[in-house]
Amino acid sequence: MHIHTLKQWQHTHDFNLGDTHAERNTHRVIGLTLIMMVVEISAGYLYGSMALLADGWHMGTHAVALGITAWAYFYARRHAKNPNYSFGTGKVGVLGGFSSAVVLALVALLMGVESVARLMDPNPIRFNEAILVAFIGLAVNVVSALLLQEKSHHHADEHHHGHHDHNLRAAYLHVIADALTSLLAIVALFSGKALGWIWMDPVMGIVGAVIISRWAYGLLKDTGKVLLDRDVNHAVIAEIRNIIEADSDNRLADVHVWRVGASHLAVILSVVTHFPKPPQHYKDLLADLNEISHITVEVIGADSPPCLDEPD
Hints:
Layout: H1 3-7, H2 20-47, H3 50-78, H4 92-120, H5 127-157, H6 166-195, H7 200-227, H8 234-245, E1 251-261, E2 264-273, H9 279-285, E3 292-301
Parallel strand pairs: 2-3
Antiparallel strand pairs: 1-2
Helix pairs in contact: 2-3, 2-5, 3-4, 3-6, 4-6, 4-7, 5-6, 6-7
């Protein structure tokens, strides 16, 4: 077979997201997060606020998680055409999201432990200074969330199709978690200043830890499904079966469908029929299913008498 004939049947396995806009905004958010981390940790120690200190360390761990997000984008793009990845690097972003979710869970655990310790042994707080820093932290988090919001919400709207940039979603959840802890710190500090409720500071840390742990669990669950090839809607498989079996007397003996990128599916079909056709015929039947980016077809000729007349 001539080389040029072979090449026309070959195709790329570049299924990564390729979202340079999200990648650039992630870098901007990392810079903002690192600056605010230093400010809040310093202010927390200086002014005695556990909620502010927790938010500062929280932002530090989020900076690490955001770094994972940025690395995942870079790595997926750099190795998109690497033949060592059988189906491309589309799952690198999902792996980045899973890793960030683990970091998010650790953040929640550390916040909870430290908050309980402060609840048992409260420290004096300089409320005015701590409140000012908390407001600055909230403003930075809101700006960061806006930088990451557009694409994240776009994918959230398409959740029923499975079109998630899990990498960006992880970054977005980290920023929202930061905003939540800043808001809780503000509530705690105002309560302590106005009503003398010093205990509100660590209590808000515990509340934040519980909420963030729930987010982490949800992200771990969603990304874990993709990594284990479990994130395919049964309706998609049913649609593939209906299309193939509506043609001639075809029956699907075996079908495997799995996700190789945020909006890319790979499919392996075993078609049993009395009237075999070239594999391309069965691929063309599925051409309108835009999510399918890679199809492998096995055609098995049935050796029993046909139930139907041979189609024209």
